[in-house]
Amino acid sequence: MRRLLLLIAVAGVVLGSCSTQPTGPLPPPPVTVSSDELAADIQAGASPTVVNVWASWCLPCRSEAPLIATASTSQPNVRFIGLNVKDNDPDARRFMAQYLSDADMEHFSDASGRIPIDLGGTSGVPITFFYRSDGSLAEVHLGIIDEPTMARMLDEIDR
Amino acid sequence: MEFTLLGAAAMAMFAFWLMLRWEAKRGNAAGCATNLWDAGLVAAIVGLLGGRIVAMLEADINPFTNPAQILLVRSGVSTAAASITAVAVFAFLARRDLLPSADAIAPAALAGLAGWHAGCIPTGACLGTESALPWARALEGSDVTRHPVELYAAILLAAAAIALALWKQHGSPPLGSVAGFGLIAAGGVRLATEPLRISLSGGPVWIYVVAVVAGAGLVGWSFVTRARATRPA
Predict the structure, then answer these.
(1) What is the pLDDT of residue B62?
(2) Is the Cβ pair B60, A66 closer than 8 Å?
(3) What confidence score (pLDDT) does residue B1 get?
(4) Domain residue limits at A100
(5) How far is B135 from chain A (nearest CA, A)?
(6) Is A13 part of any domain?
(7) pLDDT (tens digit, 9 = 90+) per residue, B16-26?
(8) What does the alpha-carbon distance between residue B100 and residue B32 come to, in Å, rounded to a whole number?
(9) Is residue A144 less than 8 Å (CB to CB) from chain B?
(10) By CB count within 10 A, which of A85, A91, B91, B118 is most buried?
(11) Which residue of B has its CA nearest to A124?
């Protein structure tokens, strides 16, 4: 039993040290926007749009980031926007490098955290907004989004 | 919302418990000494944990450095890893009377799976591909009607669970055959409904095929074994 515990502890230390940290230059910081600017941008895009609200301090955001990255690269017709809220630039840039480096998406910043509420969501993160190509809001998903829900909503807006 | 998954889990546990209770009154599993409720629940929880850890590894998230994320089940569970882990854990817990225990738990396990799929109602995740059938439903604010695919799966699994339970009570299935048909039903229902689901990456179809093949093998083995045992010398 003692050997087993020792083995688990050693494996934990070894695997823990394998944690992926961002290497190389960090991406540029997200661009600061207002609610009106972002809403106008979504309307003007004339393509189905997903807005994912995230923050570097948000644990569920880290957890759902791989799905967001996969979805953004698998749906070329859909525009993906990341909205970083209540955060600071260095942490946001590290988060983007570590968790969203493979994602095909633009990132905006809202230090006040007001935009998600103005768009029809809440002050919590993560939130994912799904917009049809005509700019109408199809769905607001509060909390972590799972793969079936993401797939269904993309199918709903991308038509 | 993350907490709606608890609703789905509660429905699965209730369906599992209900079937065990219904069968207990009808002399479930002669020769089965394993506590099925405990073994089933432990297998499901450990299976979920295994499936979640594998999903994290697949997403390049280290479970040792991000232990709290193991609890965020909604962000993904590997169905294949969860299924294999759950079956392995149950086999270990019931190793002293494996086949009687597997036969005893099979209908309840199918009922639990049916409850889990019916849990799409609280999670709001019942709909699949587009359909014009009369019972097709649309998402709120949408005019695109879709197959309620998770409810199809729930109904098929519940029907299979009841059929197996009745066969066990009124027929004389050879040892291991109920578990075998249970595996066939679990894998077959997923295979049949998979084309109606929408997925970014495609479901893990291979594990459903493995379940059907393993189930068919177990059924064949059980009938052959009984035939040999009852053959006059």
Answers:
(1) 87
(2) yes
(3) 46
(4) 25-157
(5) 18
(6) no
(7) 999 998 888 76
(8) 5
(9) yes
(10) A85
(11) B1
Q: Is A23 in CB contact (< 8 Å) with chain B?
A: no
Task: Give the strand pairing for A79-85 and A49-54.
Answer: parallel
| ipTM exceeding 0.90, yes/no | no
In contact, B118 and B56? CB cutoff 8 Å: no
B1, B63, B200 member nearest A147 (Cβ): B200
Q: Are the beta carbons of B74 and A146 separated by less than 8 Å?
A: yes
For B61-104, the pLDDT digits (tens) are: 888 888 888 888 887 899 999 999 999 999 999 998 899 999 99
DSSP per position, A88-113: -HHHHHHHHHHHSTT---EEEEETT-
Q: Is A154 on the interface with B (CB under 8 A)?
A: yes
The shortest C-alpha distance from B65 to chain A (Å) reads: 5
pLDDT at B132: 96
Computed from CA positions of residues B125, B129, B132, B133, in that sequence, does the dihedral angle turn out positive or negative?
A: negative
**B200: nearest CB among A20, A70, A159:** A70
Q: Which CATH number fits the domain that encloses residue A65?
A: 3.40.30.10
Residue A15: closest C-alpha in chain B = B64
Residue A97, in any domain of the structure: yes
Instruction: Decide: B136 and B146 in contact? Cβ < 8 Å.
Output: yes
Strand partners of residue A131: A49, A137
Chain A partners within 8 Å of B128 (Cβ): 152
Query: What φ, ψ does residue B148 adopt, rounded to 5°?
Result: -80, 70
Total of domains in chain A:
1
Tell me whether residue A8 is in a domain. Answer: no
DSSP B130: B
Substitution target from A59, A145, A154, A155 for chain B, most B beta carbons within 10 A = A155
